[in-house]
Amino acid sequence: MNYIPIGRARQIGSMLFTLHWFDSIGDASGRAYPYRMETYDGEAQLTAEEPEESEEPEAGEPLPLPVAELHLHIEGTLEPELIFALAERNGIELPYKDLEELRSRYEFTDLQSFLDLYYANMAVLQTEQDFADMTRAYLARAALAGVRHAEIMLDPQAHLSRGVSLETCVNGVASVLAGSREEFGISTLLIAAFLRDLTEESALEVLEQLLAMDAPIAGIGLDSAEVGNPPAKFERLFARAKDAGLHRIAHAGEEGPPSYIIDALDILEVERIDHGIRCMEDPELVERLVDELMPLTVCPLSNVRLRAVDTLAEHPLPAMLAAGLNVCVNSDDPAYFGGYVDDNFAQLQSVIGLSEFDCVRMAANSIRSSFASEERKAELLAELAASGH
Ligand SMILES: [Zn+2]
């Protein structure tokens, strides 16, 4: 099965930024929100400006698998080009002299070394327009990757701690998500994720503010540094979210032990586990997860970049599939980890020989495990069935 070749997808992504971000960003800053970035509506532009020698898909080559992306941090979609463009727009001096120097920092030794760069780069996000532009850039790229439904995490505390208001970050992202189906063909939901290395009091305070402002969030998540911050620390937060009728998900079993997955299920009553790869160390837990059809949102390229696994060839995904677990493929923080959903699928196929059957199965898993309406799920499953994969 073929996807858009990685080289071509990168080329398109790069064109989106070089042709559109730098051309349009100057006059974008003064526009009233919400606004549409006209230069982004572009099949026609992409086609017209695509270089002749690009890796054109062969006639009849199937489009990417239609999938739901369920594990995506919007701040992790901030590409180096956009970081520079936003820094220029906001008059922020970056500690890197050029793109090359910034890119050279993307070799991580562990989760913390990534988080240090991740939080530092967020400094360029200052206005609603910045958050809107970042979101629009993700959706444009995700559409090329076959994403048809996305449940997007936003880390409000990471912005509040920098003096950016809740309204600025939430409204900036939500303004674009509100029109994502029409603009990009992607239905979307927003999830407020909380930083587990901060206190539960801080998370509760922010959740109450989100509820008070009637923020358009579908659920809450739990992310950032896992080890030493077990699920039990956030029992009251998740109980409050449940009372408020919100969906609940949590990162567990990425770097943390299998017991964190069990506690996320039993104490936080989550409906999905983000990552969850370390469940494979506990056969009883695997059996339970299979019985409960519990979704695990696996992020293969992220796991390799953050050294949760040494190489993609050693990734437990094939074993997880063989065990009957409800797994799907996601990009996590694609700007930092070497690729979007299509890149993850392409590398799984080329490196570990993932079969077309398994790819389609995981695409179906992603749709069924989403919080989309039953009607939307049926529509996407029909699209998957008709996709020629
Ligand atoms: Zn994540």
Defining traits:
single chain, 389 residues, alpha/beta, TIM Barrel, eight-stranded parallel sheet, 12% strand, globular, binds zinc ion
Q: β content, as a range?
A: 5-15%
How are strands sequenced across the largest beta sheet? 1-2-3-4-5-6-7-8
Query: How many structural domains?
Result: 1
Cα radius of gyration in angstroms: 20 Å
Instruction: Give the N-to-C terminal Cα separation.
Output: 7 Å
List the helices and strands in order. Answer: HHEHHHHEHHHEHEHEHEHEHHEHHHH
* Average pLDDT taken over every residue: 87
Helix content: 40-55%
Q: What is the highest CATH level, the class?
A: Alpha Beta
- What is the fourth-level CATH superfamily? Metal-dependent hydrolases
**Care to count the β-strands?**
8
Number of alpha- plus pi-helical segments: 19
Bound compounds: zinc ion
What can be said about this structure in brief?
By secondary structure, this protein is an alpha/beta fold. It has helices spanning 6-28, 43-49, 80-90, 99-103, 111-121, 128-144, 156-160, 166-177, 180-184, 200-212, 235-243, 258-266, 283-291, 300-305, 317-322, 334-337, 341-352, 356-368, 374-385; strands spanning 67-73, 147-154, 187-195, 219-223, 247-252, 272-275, 295-298, 326-329.
